[in-house]
Amino acid sequence: MKRPLVELVGTGRYTPTKVLTNADFERMVDTSDEWIVERTGIRERHISGPTETVAAMSKFAAVQVLEQAGIGPLDIDAIVMGTASPDRLLPSSACDLQALLGADNAAAFDIQAACSGFLYGLTVAEGLVTAGTARHVLVIGAERLSTITDYTDRSTCILFGDGAGATLVRAVSDGRRGILASYLKTDGRLAELLYRPGGGGCHPPDERLLADRGYFIKMAGREVFKAAVRSMADACDQALSQAGLTARDVDVLIPHQANIRIIEATAKHAGMPMDKVYVNVDRYGNTSAASIPIALDECVREGRIREGSTVLMVAFGGGFTWAAMVVRW
Ligand code: ACO
Description:
Layout: E1 6-14, E2 18-21, H1 22-28, H2 33-40, E3 44-47, H3 54-69, E4 78-82, H4 93-101, E5 107-111, H5 117-130, E6 137-144, H6 154-157, E7 162-171, E8 178-186, E9 194-195, H7 207-212, E10 218-219, H8 221-243, E11 252-255, H9 260-270, H10 281-284, H11 291-301, E12 310-317, E13 321-328
Parallel strand pairs: 4-5, 4-6, 11-12
Antiparallel strand pairs: 1-7, 2-3, 6-7, 8-13, 9-10, 12-13
Helix pairs in contact: 3-4, 8-9
The chain binds acetyl coenzyme *A (ACO).
């Protein structure tokens, strides 16, 4: 097993106060609570208000992490933000967060790896710390998917929610805890199965963009579903094998929360009973890069993850990107 060089310290989360239930969607599009629960497991999702920006939600999560880590904003050397729904296209939301937090000494940048953004961010942070470039890296997953969701498209609008989660990455203080393995993978040939066709340089903002609603997320749900199951299974296998562990060694599996059927299929493939699998997709829907750090924070606060717990996190998202990480807490 790899000796951990980097550990995760502290967790935090923020979810907006406004909640959209399946009953609300019954009034908005041609759908039913029964269809949504049976096909996705989702019952409600949190939707941001005007002041609940990606940067503002991230600040709430970050402050909790700093308190637990016993450091201040000026001790942060880098901020790595996983987001697919930044507040602005330029600059990155990490820059806005840096200013809001007063993290004046931090380099700050976003990572666009869709739902895999938090695990990609943790892996980049691990590299920054092991290379000696940074001592303390704040890693955030934050999304405001409601701003890029087409609320007239019943096949996507029922899925997505908003929120933020965070942790801090630093060199290990005690060789028993930390990142044991990380695995990242991408297949860009499948980009157009889950994407936003417009808004960037290929289809810049103009009347056509407004007319074709190309600004919003488009998804070929069934194809994405199949790829998600296959890729998350691959990522679990690769990360466990890299860590020299088996499913039996894992105390908690935190899968990206997109769909209960994908989560169950991933757990089944990994050989993990559902009582070891953390599920909150019913309460938040798919919050993309925020889903794993929100779940991580809930697990730690509920005592499901304790000192010494072995945690497997696995994600899949647009790109396609997928990733897994094994951490000893
Ligand atoms: N309510 C009622 N009926 C619906 C709805 C709805 N909200 N949405 C679609 N339907 C209908 C379809 O029109 C279709 O009807 P038809 O048979 O008459 O054509 C039928 O339901 C079945 O549609 P499918 O798309 O095949 O349904 P499926 O069982 O695949 O479920 C879902 C759709 C929930 C989107 C699923 O495919 C899924 O979860 N896909 C993966 C999404 C995901 O994991 N994304 C992760 C990455 S997200 C990111 O990176 C931001």
